Amino acid sequence: MDDVVAEYSPAHGIHIVLDNYCTHKRNEEWLAKNTNAHFHFTPTSASWLNQVEIWFGIFSRKALRRASFASPRELRQRIEDFIKRYNPDSKPF
User: Whole-prediction pTM value?
Assistant: First the structure.
């Protein structure tokens, strides 16, 4: 986040949307130093608002269910294969 904030002038407001995970809420010191940054939190128990969680749900159901991997390389290959198959027909959620 330091790199993101550094790209903007202090007069430019930066709005960051976060889920309600507890580590996202312990940033008072950082926010005090970066007064142009504003955190907005999604409602508790609203994983459907987090697009990454939706994608990981699809990925885990279609690529990882009942899977077993002999090595990290094998897991990585499964991930890459899924992305190659998924991306051409993917649509926004």
Answer: 0.50
More confident site: 48 or 87:
87
Owner of token pair 């608002």: 49
Residue 35 structure tokens: 């007064």
List, for residues 16-35, the tens digit of each pLDDT value.
888 777 777 788 999 999 99
Is the alpha carbon torsion for 40, 44, 47, 52 positive or negative?
positive
Q: Tokens 């986040």, residue?
A: 1
- Per-residue model confidence (pLDDT) at position 17: 85
CA diameter of the chain: 52
Please state, in angstroms and rounded to a whole number, the distance separating the CA atoms of residues 93 and 69. 30
